[in-house]
Hints:
This protein is mainly beta. The protein has helices at 11-15, 120-127, 203-206, 212-216, 391-397, 399-404; strands at residues 22-28, 39-44, 55-60, 72-73, 89-93, 100-104, 113-118, 130-137, 143-149, 155-162, 169-172, 186-189, 194-197, 223-228, 234-239, 247-252, 260-265, 270-276, 282-289, 294-299, 305-310, 315-320, 328-334, 361-362, 365-366, 374-376, 382-386, 407-413, 420-422, 428-429, 439-440. The chain is built from 6 helices and 31 strands.
Amino acid sequence: WRxxxxxxxxxLFLLQGPREEILYLPCIxxxxxxxxxDYLATVDVDPKSPTYCQVIHRLPMPNLRDELHHSGWNACSxxxxxxxxxxxxxxxxxxxxxxxYVVDVGTNPRAPKIHKMVEPIELYWKCGLANPxxxxxxxxxxxxxxxxxxxxxxxxxxxxxxxxxxxxVIGNWEHQGEAVPFGYDFWYQPRHNVMxxxxxxxxxxxVNGFNPAHVQEGLYGSALNIWDWTTHKKLxxxxxxxxxxxxxxxxFLHDPSAAEGYVGCALNSTVFRFYKTAEGDWAAEKVISIPxxxxxxxxxxxxxxxxxxNWLHGDIRQYDITDRRNPRxxxxxxxxxxxxxxxxxxxxxxxxxxxxxxxxxxxxxRIPGSPQMLQLSLDGRxxxxxxxxxxxxxxxxxxxxxxxxSVMMQIDVDTVDGGLTLNExxxxxxxxxxxxxxxxxxxxxxxxxCTSDIWL
Length: 456
């Protein structure tokens, strides 16, 4: 489980896995004013360990200004029936430099090392793509990475295939000329022969911050793209309209027979449910709408709860989704954000009639920024959260986080009736890193988790 963990046969099998002991987080220096390479941090989250709540290893990248972002595995549950496959390499794309790092976490999980680098020119020349984002392993043994742009910074939603053994770039997954206008996240569901991808925006528009005028200029996306998983053909483009602008993380239910899931749409803070219709095509409906700005979302391994972060307001919400069309809010906790009551913003009207929240203070530290990236423990009882979204937007919306660094927090989850409670004894302060404050982003367990594994 802890070192060369094999993929798992089902989401319910993974649900019974052991408690997490370490987490991997990419840490970013781009846009902080500190000229140091990004690095992969290993954090001890074992309460029995003498180094609990500490960064126990740092693996610096050999380049500057990569903007490490999201990560994936060389093998996941799609490879369950292949005994030769081990989850021993972390695939770590760089959102801005377009470089891809392959990190060996199998030899020594507590001290990863770089195994291989895929240079940007490989993506440019072989695929005509840049700005890699989401990485998923495939049942074929290959690795697939979604991309957001072309080498010039224009929007282009295509997919790079890597060989799962050599990590060489093979080429595009999509057919020539069939890339979509924008790219970001994707999830596939083989039993329904479908893959769904989402849209953020053109890299040249979002590279240094968010300009609302770019939305009107058509530089941000608003659609779900439906693909035939077997033939790689585009099937549909589901335009979610203004309410669904900037659809980010897409999550199918973990049950591989389920033909539905959810997507969080950032700009107007909505969640859409997508589903397969009786006619065999796909449709979407809005099921949640809150004051903005929804960013990361995830679904518990038992498909009972949906969680998402609200990066502007500063809260994390838990919804019971047993009634798939009518999510029910059962948990909420504020962890900072832009509307804290002693801040410069006064809320004049709140459709939810909530008071402005108090600042979040843990172990005497006032938390800068706002909750963003989420990762749930396998048993669903602990929710880990970091506060950095993307360095260019962090700098624009939360300059105090640029100065002080991001943090990692943990929330205790009531898995019976619903409910979220901040663990006030847990804090990893990335403002105290040896080379200065840094921005920690996505969280990964060595043994797989609810955002990395897809079951066949």
